[in-house]
Amino acid sequence: MMMKNRTPGKISTKWIPLICVAFFFIGMLFTNRMWEPPESGSKLISSHQQNEELKVICEDCGTKKKSKDDSDVMEQVHKTQEAIKSLDKSVSMLQMELAASRSSKQLVHPREPVGATAQKGQSSKKKVFVVIGINTAFSSRKRRDSVRGTWMPQGEKLLKLEKEKGVVIRFTIGHSATSNSILDRAIDSEEAQHHDFLRLEHIEGYHELSAKTKIFFSTAVAKWDADFYVKVDDDVHVNLGVLASTLAHYRSKPRVYIGCMKSGPVLAQKNVKYHEPEFWKFGEDGNKYFRHATGQIYAISKDLATYISINQPILHKFANEDVSLGSWFIGLDVEHINEPIMCCGTPPDCEWKAQAGNVCVASFDWSCSGICQSVEKMKFVHEKCGEGDDGIWGVLL
């Protein structure tokens, strides 16, 4: 039997339809599988985008959280700084009061060792609102009587004023150069009669007013714990109620210096009143002093009086007492408060202001640096410009 030769690689034509059908189905399957990856890829891309968006959102949340955390930290730092400042101030005040107590005990009891007062069992210094020191001299008995007869309460009323209102008023005077002189004995006799003096460890003298001012504040701080300390001359009229209410406005402020602020000329010429031997310290001829309160009346807060008490041995004294006081506060964080009602003129000036409802704290004549002929005129000024006998009693302190 003869065998037929088959050509390798050739497919019989009868299988072609079957092969085509098979490839069709394979193609369908392949097509379906080929379409799936793009769909899955789209999901992957979408998922990747969502992840990136979430990442950005989370990073933004983290940034906001970080920003908020930074803000909280800064706020805590600020609060801590404020607490430290407050603590520093409290420590500083305690140190000032301790030093003032030590130095002032030596002023009040110069012959006794520090601590002797406490050992004797004496009570601590009394808390009051204001201590008013009326600067006076040995030769000013008539001036003192004119003040006692007008704006300064006497006897039981003076004690009541101190007890109920916390307003202490004393004439301030030192001693003569001669121990137990007739001048000192005259003051002792007057004190026994009126009980309204504050004796200072100071030798009286016209050119020693700056020193007297330092010693007055130091002695007053040692004796009374007051919110304010006032110095006034014995030829000035004062309305105590208006003074107290004016000071009360500044009760919450530390380191205040209250008065009629001025800046007078520095007088270099010799043999003239108010001559300044250290004129060269203020620059060229014709210059003015720094701003300071006029010396007839001014008030300082407790912090400043304590500062003077602590540093009084090294505080420089210029020729004029009011300039000296102003110089002690130069360079300190002190608020200068100008109060025009503390330097009204005598009638008709203060009278017109009183009629308009603007009663003055103090009245005097600039031409005399006080009330001219105050012994004769003080009563007249009191009648025209006084607040009335009940003025101080109606003030809430």
Textual characterization of the structure:
With 397 residues, the chain is of the alpha/beta class. The longest helix is centred in the N-terminal third of the chain and has 93 residues. The N terminus is likely disordered. 48% of the residues lie in helices and 15% in strands. The radius of gyration is 44 Å and the shape is globular. Helix 6 crosses helix 9. The protein has 11 helices and 9 strands. Strand 2, helix 5 and strand 3 form a beta-alpha-beta unit. The strands form 2 sheets. It has a 7-stranded mixed sheet with strand order 3-2-1-4-7-6-8, sandwiched between helices.
Give a quick precis of the structure.
The chain has eleven helices and nine strands. With 397 residues, the protein is an alpha/beta fold. A seven-stranded mixed β-sheet has the order 3-2-1-4-7-6-8, sandwiched between helices. A two-stranded antiparallel sheet has the order 5-9.
